[in-house]
Amino acid sequence: MVATTTLSPVMLRVAADISRLIRKFLMFAGLLAVLALVGAYSGHVDLLRTLQGFLPSDVAASEANLTLSEGDDALQATALDDAATISPRMHRALRYVSQRYRVSNEALRPIFATAQESARALGIDPLLIIAVIGIESGFNPFSQSVVGAQGLMQVMPRFHADKLPEDAGELPFFDPVTNVQVGARVLKESIRRNGGLVPGLQQFGGAINDPARRYSSKVLAERQRLEQAVQKMQKA
Fold first, then answer.
1. CA atoms of 30 and 50, how far apart (whole Å)
2. pLDDT tens digits, residue range 157-171?
3. How confident is the model over 10-20, as pLDDT tens digits?
4. Which H or E run contains 213?
5. With DSSP H G I counted as helix, E B as strand and the rest as coil, what are the percentages for the chain, rounded to 5?
6. Do residues 172 and 183 touch, judged by C-beta distance below 8 A?
7. What is the DSSP string of 23-55?
8. CATH classification of 9-235 is 3.40.190.290, yes or no?
């Protein structure tokens, strides 16, 4: 007969709490390691600052304090510039996306600022870019498809490396700002080459031969939700 020991309910709860804390610590350590690796490879301060926003608030705050100690003035100036350049329409859309996708405002600001700047340069709706990001990656900058498309807008590196800026780092398509810059150009080219928004979206999504046009329908429905959220906030 094997002797058994029965723990009291209090001890069981304490053991469970300790186990949860250990798992949480290991998860956060892994996330911070990924942030450090990607930041080191890319060489862009914006990437590290953006990705910090995807961490839980307490961890992001402690990581931000370490980063700010090395470049406090530069980072704060950049954050203020991002906030200043986002239009009221895009700011309302940012708030909606933050709540829907559970991503911090700080992580979204450079993404929205880049989408707005790229859309202005290319002559397209910035909310269209935001809608594509939502459909393609759900605002996960580390997203990668089975065919190799990477980042927020799921850009194919082997087809669009020529569109990268000269100072792009080692992992440029995982840099949210670079990905949006390149992805917006690819989107604009697709619309121009195919003679319209719907066929352009279909080509961008790799579904040019789909007669049901399901990809473009999803993106346009997402843009409509964004626009409705913006209008609702404006009236509130």
1. 17
2. 989 988 888 777 788
3. 555 655 555 55
4. none
5. 75, 0, 25
6. no
7. HHHHHHHHHHHHHHHHHHHH--HHHHHHHHTTS
8. no
